[in-house]
Amino acid sequence: MSLAPSREALAIADPRVVLVPVEAVGPGGILPDGRRLLVERAGLAEADVDLLDAGHRLYLQRASDLARRTIEISPPTRRGIAIVLDGRRVRPFAALLNDSAWILDRGDVDARRSSPELIAWLFAVADRLRQTPDVTLAPVQVAAWWFERSERERADFAAAAMRSDRPDADALRALAEAIPHLRELRHDRLRPPRRPAAHRPIPGTGLLVPAALEEAPPRIVEGIRAGARAAEQAFRARCAENGDAAKELRRLRDWLADEEPPLVVVRRGAIAWSPDRPRETVRLAEALAGAPACAVGDLHLDLAVVAGHSRRFLGALVDADRLAPTDQRAEQGGYCFMHREAGFVALDLDEPGLERLSSNAIPWAREMLGARCLHEWSHRAVDSGWVPSSVDDAAFARLGSELARLLDGAIAAAPRPLRELAREQESRGSPGEALARRFASRLPDWNSNLLASCFWSPVEREVYVSHNVRHLDGFFPPQGTWRKLVRHLYEAQYLEFSGLPDRDERYVEISGIAPQLSRLGIDRSGWADLLSAARALCLAHGIDVRHVRLPAGAHGSD
Predict the structure, then answer these.
(1) Number of helices (H) and strands (E), helices first, in the chain?
(2) Are 464 and 368 contacting, i.e. CB atoms less than 8 angstroms apart?
(3) Which DSSP symbol is given to 503?
(4) Burial readout 104-140 (b: 16 or more C-beta within 10 A, e: otherwise)
(5) Which of 158, 263, 368, 468 has its CA 20 to 30 A from that of 398?
(6) Angle 369-375-378 (CA atoms, 0-180°, nearest 5)?
(7) Cβ neighbours of residue 539 under 8 Å, at least 6 residues apart?
């Protein structure tokens, strides 16, 4: 099986990193296309890829074993593998592709210095970070990983940690030194103590700390935190040393004044720059005071993407003046958003997680920004009625009824507590009808994706899908089980825009939905029927080319 062109483009889009897409990572190791990417694009030796294979297999084996015996250790997940080739230019601990890929440093897969033990543990910690996104706490929270490790296995890990040249190698070495203490912790299922009352629990982990080690976990966390902090400080120092920030700022201000791009820049909730007054750049300059050259330069590139995409989209409208106004309920956040008052796509300089004022953009962030920009404009086109239903009302109602029927059937076959939960939460009509209405409420968002996808580049398309096809653990409370199922039905539809093969099967693997389906009593055939009914509702829409001139080759353009 060869990678689809859009998937290959995603893998090599950023020279700082190479991605082994999820379809090129098999249970037995890296598949041929993944190996080719790692050897040809990342410069890995065959021995390095063999090492990665061994670490991945070790992770699968141990995570599966631990997950069977304790609820705190997650079953192994299915993700792509991103290898950071130049850690000096990628912010440490950044979540690439919204955590849809494991992240390893080039040195982690160097057969001359690393170990399968190190790689397997890095994968396991990455799983924990999905539940507790704190890089300093997660290593302690997965302490159960070390309970049954042999002296040789622990020594292999420690030796690799001491040789590591990762940006956060100091944190790794602090952990290696702490393993003897971690092995002394107890666990309510794996290593229950004789006298539980004499132990302090660490909530959400199953770990129990004996009185003699009361100070050990905080001390270990602080050692890891110090190493992580040093890595971040070193990265920011490198950012500050390179380039001429004043020169980059002058270029940006001149560009804004001359080009008058159709966008706004926001800082702390207020507009810092607007095309209404293009030469008033003082507030923006004040906001960027102290920002390193790389941050200012990348902001300029980001704004150029938003400007170019906005102009291209507006130029494709037959009558842009008839575009619906911005929805005043529109979310004012994300990589970019449609500003409620200005009516243009906005960039927030303080957007959480992006650190636009202190460092350069993380890999694939600009592609996600471009995809989001087009999605935001498409929402207004959808509100204008330019992506209508392609079937009549009666046919559309039948499609909704079919999804409701299947959901009611799933509820009826579920264990009694879950049946009652569905009936308690929905009041109008049957539970399945209420859940089908909930799914239908997401269709305007789907229609926006349908239109935006005509303008996305192949990489933007894949990055956008990667950000939105994910685990939903933690997004819904226990009583939201059925609503979570509906959200999965919607999220799975994003794969219509991807070159990922075997989409329905891949969604089950990537999203981690299998345990939820099992609890609900839904088998793979039932899940396939639900997906098909949900997909039919989505595909019962089309773009009205009387209002939007689609790019050549886009679906519906002929």
Answers:
(1) 21, 12
(2) yes
(3) H
(4) bbbbbbbbebbbbbbbbbbbbbbbbbbeeeebbbbbb
(5) 468
(6) 145
(7) 496
Indicate the length of the chain as a whole number: 558
| Per-residue pLDDT tens digits for 210-233 | 888 888 888 889 999 999 999 999
Quote the distance between the C-alpha of residue 315 and its chain's center.
31
Return the HEC string of 395-411: HHHHHHHHHHHHHHHHH
Which tens digits make up the pLDDT trace of 325-357? 999 888 898 899 999 999 999 999 999 888 999
Tokens of 204: 């959400």
Q: Are 39 and 11 in contact (CB under 8 A)?
A: no
* Helix or strand (DSSP H, E) at 59: helix 46-69
* Rounded CA separation 469/541 (Å): 22
Q: Estimate to the nearest angstrom the gap between the alpha carbon of 160 and the chain centroid.
A: 29
Q: Say how far apart CA 488 and CA 225 lie, in whole Å.
A: 35
DSSP string spanning 334-381?
SSSEE-TTT-SEEEETT-TTT-TTTSPPPTTHHHHHHHHHHHHHHHHH
* Short-list 76, 64, 93, CA closest to 22: 76
For residues 228 and 373, what is the distance between their CA atoms, to the nearest angstrom? 33
Give the largest CA-CA distance in the chain: 76
> Which two structure tokens, joined as six digits, stand for 539?
């595909």
pTM score of the predicted model: 0.93
Mean pLDDT of each 10-residue bin along the chain, 558 residues long: 92 96 92 95 95 96 92 84 92 89 96 97 91 84 92 96 93 92 90 87 88 87 91 91 93 97 95 96 95 96 98 97 92 92 96 91 96 98 97 97 97 93 78 95 97 98 95 84 96 96 91 92 97 97 96 64
* Pairwise CA distance, residues 236 & 91, whole Å: 8
